[in-house]
Amino acid sequence: MPFTVEGRSVLNPAEVPITAARLVTPGYLEVLGVELIDGRLLDDRDRIGSPMVVVISEELARQAWAGADPIGKRIRRGPPS
């Protein structure tokens, strides 16, 4: 699934980043042994009708926000439009 980073334009359609998305339940990332660097992992607050959240990798944080704090930033799933 392609996504766009709010506030960043994509000049070349071939440069649109692509990621995978999974629907999971609370505790999934802990079972996988994901190490939390900042922010929070998914929990019982994350339900249908709640504000959407995303857990990102350090690599995505580096690529999308180049040293800035990604917490509170937004991405949108889907092609740029």
Question: How would you describe what is shown here?
Answer:
With 81 residues, the chain is α+β, with helices and mostly antiparallel strands. Helices cover 16% and strands 7% of the residues. The protein is built from two helices and two strands. A two-stranded antiparallel sheet has the order 1-2. The radius of gyration is 14 Å and the shape is globular. The relative contact order is 0.29.
Q: Nutshell version of this structure?
A:
With 81 residues, the chain is an alpha+beta fold. It is 16% helix and 7% strand.
Task: Characterize the overall form.
Answer: globular
Strand arrangement within the widest β-sheet reads 1-2
Please report the total strand number as a whole number.
2
| Intertermini distance | 14 Å
Oligomeric composition of the shown chains = single chain
Low-confidence stretches: none
Structural class designation: alpha+beta
Helix share, percent: 10-25%
The overall pLDDT, averaged over residues, is 85
